[in-house]
Design a protein that fits this description.
The complex is a heterodimer of chains A (271) and B (407).
Chain A: H1 3-14, E1 18-24, H2 30-39, E2 48-51, H3 62-73, H4 78-89, E3 97-101, H5 103-109, H6 111-121, E4 125-128, H7 137-146, E5 149-150, E6 152-154, H8 160-167, E7 174-177, H9 190-203, E8 208-211, H10 217-226, E9 229-232, H11 234-242, H12 254-270
Parallel strand pairs in A: 1-2, 1-9, 2-3, 3-4, 4-5, 6-7, 7-8, 8-9
Helix pairs in contact in A: 2-4, 2-12, 4-6, 6-7, 9-10, 10-12, 11-12
Chain B: H1 2-6, E1 20-21, E2 24-28, H2 34-49, H3 51-65, E3 71-73, H4 75-81, E4 85-90, H5 100-113, E5 118-123, H6 127-139, E6 142-148, H7 149-154, H8 156-164, E7 168-172, H9 179-192, E8 197-199, H10 210-218, H11 220-233, E9 239-244, H12 248-254, E10 264-272, H13 283-286, E11 288-292, E12 294-299, H14 324-332, E13 335-341, H15 342-356, H16 362-374, E14 383-388, H17 396-402
Parallel strand pairs in B: 4-14, 5-6, 5-8, 6-7, 9-10, 9-14, 10-13
Antiparallel strand pairs in B: 1-2, 2-12, 3-4, 11-12
Helix pairs in contact in B: 3-5, 4-15, 5-6, 5-10, 6-8, 10-12, 11-12, 15-16
Classes of the chains: A alpha/beta (271), B alpha/beta (407).
Protein name (chain B): Tryptophan synthase beta chain
Family (chain B): Belongs to the TrpB family.
Catalytic activity (chain B): (1S,2R)-1-C-(indol-3-yl)glycerol 3-phosphate + L-serine = D-glyceraldehyde 3-phosphate + L-tryptophan + H2O
Chain lengths: 271, 407
């Protein structure tokens, strides 16, 4: 059983949803983001989404874009991000790791080589923002062979008929992009989520993670109950960014302030 | 024309049903946008098949855009170059001063058919922005134009025009503040406002069906050239030259000639300070295939797949990518892609102005610079057509600065 499957079925027994924090690799530098990554499971992360920095993240908002640029400035490469996962796996064999990024760095690395190396490094799932179902054959075969889940994105704009198409052959979990917009801007209301989820549940038995616009512990709690997981990204990055020096360097409170916020989110999800 | 494009082996039949030209093209957008892209594809198919749509478009082309644009024999330039006869396809005489209105007029009619109430667009030099703001004024639609902050600074007259036309111009400070960043920002706006907003792409790039749709609307240029050159010379030209940023004016003049093998098609990229200077916009000469802004195409990128900033003296050419159909035409060898430096373009700009009394956009000055290289080596009975895609009023400040003149 994959780590993703194992984690969701364990949580189902526990009777709660998952909390999935996001961090941008190399933001603001390799050591700090690795330290953050390593501290996350103990603070309540049930799985972790790692952003692969890209120069042109056109589906992300200003917070994640700034994080990506800091990461690139710190020397982030796809190979470096895989190394980070490898380093994380030396201390943690259980927490599922999902890489999220844009297609071009993967394409440049080579789709097959990427899937082989990602699986070897200990990656469990991949989210490629600008690779819709129509173009997924680029990675599908290699990912399947290496036991990696290509996480399917579903949006409020995804129609009923299309839902069946995009979920055909999906694995891991389904990522519900809860708003029509970019990351870290608006939030979906409880009512909107309550309306959207049954439609999704009808189309898939996979766990549904809800992301985009989840900021507060209260929102994380709601999303993890209506869905199966809440993904929090921009809110954590904002906290991290606020601890950096004017030159963008980490300070003594960089890791601890994010971890503190994560603990509050985790407590809400568990309450 | 219809006969040729219905042949399965016609070079004009692309893209395939996946929106690809060979390995290029496709629709690489976020899932949120995918249903919109498919809806657009359907709406465009229906429009294309509807004679009423073509009739409406022809009406606006004739009475609003000012088509057909003349094919001008540049006699003094020809004499100065001392070789092939040089003709200019005068797209700069279109309303708003460039070829951009051909595409914008077509897309705005599609947007209206789709019932969209608001238009977003990206612009580099401002030609596409001005054209978009113009049709939004004409049809009473809300309009937001994203423009790199650097470009807002160097293209002030066009910013003022857009404002006069009632558009909101949003400067983009992310990245280098140029066209690539404006494109990202326009896509973000589109994702956030999918319900009522139409994304009016200005070049033959972006997710399918944009490269096809923009090409179709711009193909009026080449279709007219065919007829006009037959009338003037009784034969097709030996070469067609056009400048390339994203490549819409070039695709527009190339496409009707794709199956006419004897007509050499030459796209001119902006080399900027030189192909090996690191300050270039020549995506085909110095890039490699990758995925950005919804399509697979030649891109300026580093070895890790991060997109690099493009540089050109012309704000309209400094895009790190190129339309996917051009990438394909390059790979199959049907079109030739060359490059011209900032300095060569500046020189050509002045030659054109002096010999023909036409101030060209810096974009087309790149095309002209290449014409100046090849025409003297050709026979006097040979013919080159240059797509003079825009007028240079917007560029006089840039040119003045490079000539050391203070305006």
């Amino acid at each position: 059983m994959s780590r993703i499957q194992a984690r969701f079925s364990a949580l189902r027994k526990e009777g709660r949803g998952a909390l999935i924090p996001y961090l941008q690799a190399y933001d603001p530098d390799y050591e700090t983001s690795l330290a953050l990554l390593k501290a996350m499971p103990k603070a309540g992360a049930d799985a972790i989404e790692i952003g692969v920095p890209f120069s042109d993240p056109s589906a992300d908002g200003p917070t994640i874009q700034a994080a990506a640029l800091r990461g690139l400035k710190a020397g982030a490469t796809l190979a470096g991000v895989l190394k980070m996962v490898e380093d994380f796996r030396t201390t943690d064999q259980e927490t599922p790791i999902i890489l999220m990024g844009y297609l071009n760095p993967i394409d440049s690395y080579g789709p097959e080589r990427f899937c082989v190396d990602a699986a070897k490094a200990g990656v469990d799932g991949i989210i490629v923002v600008d690779m819709p179902r129509e173009e997924a054959d680029l990675l599908d075969t290699y990912a399947k062979r290496e036991g990696l889940d290509i996480i399917t994105l579903v949006a409020p704009t995804t129609t009923g008929e299309r839902l069946r198409y995009v979920l055909d052959g999906a694995s891991g979990f389904v990522y519900y992009v809860s708003i029509t917009g970019i990351t870290g801007t608006s939030s979906a209301s409880r009512e909107q989520l309550e309306e959207a989820l049954p439609r999704l549940r009808q189309a898939t038995d996979l766990p549904v993670a809800i992301g985009f616009g989840i900021t507060t512990p209260e929102q994380a709690k709601t999303a993890s109950r209506i869905g199966d997981a809440a993904i929090v990204a921009s809110a954590l990055i904002k906290t991290m960014a606020s601890t950096l020096t004017a030159e963008g360097h980490a300070t003594g409170s960089t890791v601890s302030s994010v971890i503190k916020q994560l603990e509050q989110l985790a407590a809400a999800v568990r309450s | 024309m219809t006969k040729l494009s219905s042949l399965p082996n016609s070079l004009r039949s692309g893209p395939d049903d996946r929106g690809r030209f060979g390995i290029f093209g496709g629709h690489f957008v976020a899932e949120t946008l995918m249903p919109l892209v498919l809806e657009l594809e359907e709406a465009y198919r229906a429009a294309k098949a509807d004679p009423e749509f073509r009739k409406e478009l022809d009406y606006y082309y004739r009475d609003y855009v000012g088509r057909p644009s003349p094919l001008w024999f540049a006699q003094r330039l020809t004499e100065e170059l001392g070789g092939a006869k040089v003709y200019f396809k005068r797209e700069e005489l279109n309303h708003t001063g460039s070829h951009k209105l051909n595409n914008v007029m077509g897309q705005i009619l599609v947007a209206r058919r789709m019932g969209k109430k608001r238009i977003v667009a990206e612009t580099g030099a401002g030609q596409h922005g001005v054209a978009t703001a113009t049709v939004c004024a004409l049809f009473g639609l809300k309009c937001t134009i994203y423009m790199g902050a650097t470009d807002v600074e160097r293209q002030k007259p066009n910013v003022f025009r857009m404002n006069l036309l009632g558009a909101e111009v949003k400067p983009v400070t992310a990245g280098a503040g140029t066209l690539k960043d404006a494109m990202n920002e326009a896509m973000r706006d589109w994702v956030a406002n999918v319900e009522d907003t139409y994304f009016l792409v200005g070049t033959v790039a972006g997710p399918h069906p944009y490269p096809e749709m923009v090409r179709d609307f711009q193909s009026i240029i080449g279709t007219e050239v065919k007829e006009q050159i037959m009338g003037l010379e009784g034969r097709y030209p030996d070469a067609i030259v056009a400048a390339i940023g994203g490549g819409s004016n070039a695709m527009g003049i190339f496409h009707p000639f794709l199956d006419d093998e004897k007509v050499k098609l030459i796209g001119v990229e902006a080399a900027g300070l030189g192909l090996d200077s690191g300050k270039t916009a020549a995506s085909i000469s110095r890039g490699r295939p990758g995925v950005l802004h919804g399509n697979r195409t030649y891109l300026l990128q580093d070895k890790n797949g991060q997109i690099e900033e493009a540089h050109s003296i012309s704000a309209g050419l400094d895009y790190p990518g190129i339309g996917p159909e051009h990438s394909w035409l390059n790979d199959i060898g049907r079109a030739e892609y060359v490059s011209v430096t900032d300095q060569e373009a500046l020189d050509a700009f002045q030659v054109c102005t002096r010999t023909e009394g036409i101030i060209p956009a810096l974009e087309c000055a790149h095309g002209l610079a290449h014409v100046m290289k090849i025409a003297p080596k050709m026979e006097k009975d040979q013919i080159i057509v240059l797509n003079l895609s825009g007028r240079g009023d917007k560029d006089i400040f840039t040119v003045a600065r490079h000539l050391g003149v203070e305006l």
